[in-house]
Amino acid sequence: MRILLVEDDTNLGDAVRDHLVARGHAVDCAATLEDGRELLRAIDYGLVLLDLGLPDGSGMDLLRALRGRSDWRPVIILTAHDQISDRIEGLQAGADDYLVKPFDLGELDARLQAVARRASDRPDPEYRFGAVTLCPADHRATREGREVTLTAREWAILERLLRRPGAVIGRAQIEEALYAFGAEVESNALEVYVSRIRKKLGNDLIGTLRGIGYRIQG
Ligand code: CA
């Protein structure tokens, strides 16, 4: 799993990272809220470990921002022993679990597994944007209520974009969705797929930012 660790205590951060890497996870570390936000914009993490007391603000702001844009990826908050109210607030704000520092690395493993398992049991959300809906559970796409047939690759690209409507999604990130099919991605493949999606679902749905990426636009 690709994990983002937002933690400004470098000793703790290094220990957690080394432990998780040894367990086969890929881990990126951010020591500030701003770095955490930036990494979240760039990379599609499977889980976030989030310290609350960060130099440039509270991890709670990051958590609220995620949930506010219907981003339900699992978040485990890391709190100090004396911050019970923070834990409650974190859970209310949509954290999946919390760990109290100092925590045992074995406990971290157990929580991580439990949270990841629950997340994979969650039904996929339905994505809606304007007249377009995408329902991953039964793999149905509709435009103005009429069913539209998308190929697996078109579907993968559109789903990646619809997870974060309005946000610019970089080419590399979208291409990642294509690599999952095991094929080489040719340099103009993305343009081709995007133009097919536009034909099926409307020209205005996907905006192009030349050389940067694409976004779902209203
Ligand atoms: Ca801290």
Q: Helices, strands, pairings?
A:
Elements: E1 2-6, H1 10-22, E2 26-30, H2 33-42, E3 47-51, E4 53-54, E5 57-58, H3 59-68, E6 75-79, H4 84-92, E7 97-100, H5 105-121, E8 127-129, E9 132-135, E10 140-143, E11 146-148, H6 152-162, E12 169-170, H7 171-179, H8 189-201, E13 206-209, E14 213-216
Parallel strand pairs: 1-2, 1-3, 3-6, 6-7
Antiparallel strand pairs: 4-5, 8-9, 9-10, 10-11, 12-14, 13-14
Helix pairs in contact: 6-7, 6-8
Calcium ion binds near residues 8, 9, 51 and 54.
Brief summary of the model shown:
The protein is elongated.
Bound small molecules, deduplicated: calcium ion
Count of alpha and pi helical runs: 8
Order of helices and strands: EHEHEEEHEHEHEEEEHEHHEE
Oligomer: single chain
Radius of gyration, Cα only, in angstroms?
19 Å
Morphology call: elongated
| Biggest sheet: strand arrangement | 2-1-3-6-7
Identify low-pLDDT runs.
Answer: none
What is the helix fraction of residues, given as a range?
40-55%
Q: SS-based structural class?
A: alpha/beta
Q: Which whole number gives the mean pLDDT?
A: 88
Cα distance spanning the termini: 33 Å
Q: Based on DSSP secondary structure assignment, what is the total number of beta strands? A: 14
- Main β-sheet, in a few words? 5 strands, parallel
Strand content: 15-25%
Walkthrough of the structure:
- With 218 residues, this protein is an alpha/beta fold.
- It is built from 8 helices and 14 strands.
- Strands 2-1-3-6-7 form a 5-stranded parallel beta sheet, sandwiched between helices. The protein has a 4-stranded antiparallel beta sheet with strand order 8-9-10-11, with no helix packed on it. A 3-stranded antiparallel beta sheet has the order 12-14-13.
- Strand 4 (53-54) and strand 5 (57-58) form a beta hairpin.
- Residues 8-9, 51, 53-54 line the site of calcium ion (CA).
- The site of calcium ion has 5 residues, from strand 4.
